TrEMBL record:
Protein name: Cation/H+ exchanger transmembrane domain-containing protein
Keyword presence, ATP-binding: no
Pfam families the record matches: Na_H_Exchanger
Reactions mediated catalytically: Na(+)(in) + H(+)(out) = Na(+)(out) + H(+)(in); K(+)(in) + H(+)(out) = K(+)(out) + H(+)(in)
Main location per the UniProt record: membrane
Transmembrane spans: 20-40, 52-69, 81-98, 110-133, 215-237, 249-266, 302-320, 340-364, 385-405, 417-437
Cellular localization per UniProt: Membrane
Length: 520
């Protein structure tokens, strides 16, 4: 009687709410990933991305066997769900947690890698695939598709390398890898959207200039909007924070809701929500985080990091299950051998496209900073690690591929199905293979003892008593060892900004008082 009643309730639940069971299963698998991630926290061979992919593959296999080969999916991927709900916390967390001191000290180098580098990589991958795909018998893609492919595979995932690098031992290298990863994602999405607006039927010599102009317009206006919302939020929190009338819940809610509002406003005005929410996070971290209680600040960090982890885990779990999606493999216009050939070409172009800008731009950065007394240059070993760090492809590549070649995760077109399967193969290969090889490469190029000694000899910037560099430092704070740099012309703008910030911005929008900071 009890068993029959349970079966009846299960049938009724599945009929009235068909998504309840898949969502419950997916949440259970997410919890499993959290547990496994905790157990492997000290293991730097395996990161969260690799763990999620492997768990997803195992889950997909079980579902495939349970459904007798019909499907390996728990849920159907919706690219709009990713861009509207899942991507904003990833980017906002990056802006809120960014090490602003190092980020802005190396701002020009980071921007050259994250912006110019994406253009170079997109050009090489787009023209390379346009030239090589037909030679492999893979035809049917349009000019828009080839340009979109360039932007899709120019988006990087540097989590694996950042997990291995030691921030205190190699601050310059860590700052460049982290900063480029953030700017790279934003630039790739902005460029992808710019490609969608090209009218290929009336293409001419000015098309490239239009794309560049459209990109610059989106980049600048989105940045201004993000800064504006960040300043408004900081002002509101500073105004509300007086006496004992403060609430951790309200403070955190205002920050999160305003950040999400900035993203949606950017999308409403056809701007780049990624850039907007990133700079909104930077401004909130600089001003608003000082206008809330310490408990709110700590809670916000843990909340944002938790959201970031769950979102990326969600994407890589889906990638693991999607690898066993026989429907796409059967629909694809390529055989298994053809898929491997096309994926190999894409991977080779990714390697070439990244090398084409990392090494030349690093040399240029060293040349331009030769007279600034920067503590260290970008050595050849650093350049190799920066090149390697950007070889992994992740969540943004998957989302852009689904946006370009599917409709709500489904496609019946053989060519589009082929591109989705190839994207999945490239993401799996680069994440698993390159991810596993990252630690041996970094340890070989930067032995722990040597890099540790280098870190200790670098002006002892992390010595006891020196200001701790964390996510709540002001935009351009300088510790005592940085005073020499301020005297150089390159850093003159930093000094004037600091004076302007202390005199006019902080009294209005909040933040630590000048007396709380080391004197410039």
């Amino acid at each position: 009687m009890g068993i029959a009643l349970t079966e009846l309730l299960s049938i009724e639940l599945a009929t009235e709410h068909p998504q309840v069971i898949p969502i419950s299963v997916f949440i259970a698998i997410l919890c499993l990933c959290l547990v496994i991630g905790h157990l492997l926290e000290e293991n730097r061979w395996v990161n969260e991305s690799i763990t999620a992919i492997l768990v997803g593959a195992v889950s997909g296999t079980v579902i495939l066997l349970t459904s007798k080969g019909k499907s390996s999916h728990i849920l159907v991927f919706d690219e709009e769900l990713f861009f509207v709900y899942l991507l904003p916390p990833i980017i906002f967390n990056a802006g809120f947690q960014v090490k602003k001191k190092k980020f802005f000290h190396n701002f020009l180098t980071i921007m050259s890698f994250g912006v110019i580098g994406v253009f170079i990589s997109t050009t090489i991958i787009s023209f390379g695939t346009w030239w090589l795909f037909p030679k492999l018998g893979f035809k049917g893609l349009t000019a828009r598709d080839y340009l979109a492919i360039g932007t899709i595979f120019s988006s990087t995932d540097t989590v694996c390398t950042l997990q291995i690098l030691h921030q205190d031992e190699t601050p310059l290298l860590y700052s460049l890898v982290f900063g480029e990863g953030v700017v790279n994602d934003a630039t790739s999405v902005v460029l992808f959207n710019a490609v969608q607006k090209i009218h290929f039927e009336s293409i001419n010599g000015l098309t490239a200039l239009r794309v560049l102009g459209n990109f610059l317009y989106l980049f600048s206006t989105s940045t201004i909007l993000g800064i504006g919302v960040g300043l408004v939020t900081s002002f509101v929190l500073k105004t509300l924070y007086f006496g004992s009338r403060h609430s951790t819940t309200r403070e955190l809610a205002i920050m999160v809701l305003m950040a999400y509002l900035s993203y949606m406003l950017a999308e409403l005005f056809s701007l780049s929500g990624i850039l907007t929410v990133f700079f909104c996070g930077v401004l909130m971290s600089h001003y608003a985080s000082y206008n809330v209680t310490e408990s709110s600040r700590i809670t916000s960090r843990h909340c944002f990091y938790s959201s970031l982890f769950q979102v990326k885990t969600f994407i890589f779990l889906y990638v693991g299950t999607d690898a066993l999606d026989f429907t796409k493999w059967k629909t694809s216009s390529l055989s298994v051998v053809g898929t491997l050939e096309v994926s190999s070409v894409i991977t080779a172009l990714v390697l070439l496209g990244r090398a084409a800008f990392v090494f030349p731009l690093s040399v240029f950065a060293n040349f331009t900073n030769r007279n600034t007394q920067r503590s260290e240059s970008i050595t050849l070993k650093h350049q190799v690690i920066i090149w390697w760090a950007g070889l992994m492809r992740g969540a943004v590549s998957i989302a852009l591929a689904f946006k370009q070649f599917t409709y709500s995760g489904v496609t019946l077109d053989p060519v589009n199905a082929a591109m989705v399967t190839n994207t999945t193969v490239v993401v799996l290969f680069t994440t698993l293979v390159f991810g596993f090889l990252t630690k041996p490469l970094v340890n070989y190029l930067l032995p722990h003892d040597a890099s540790h000694n280098t870190g200790n000899n670098r002006g002892k910037r992390s010595a006891p008593g020196s200001p701790k560099e964390d996510a709540t430092l002001p935009l351009l704070s300088f510790d005592e060892s940085s005073l020499l740099l301020i005297e150089q012309p390159v850093y003159t703008i930093h000094r004037y900004w600091r004076k302007f910030d202390d005199t006019y911005m902080r009294p209005v929008f909040g933040g630590p008082r000048p007396l709380d900071q080391p004197e410039c």
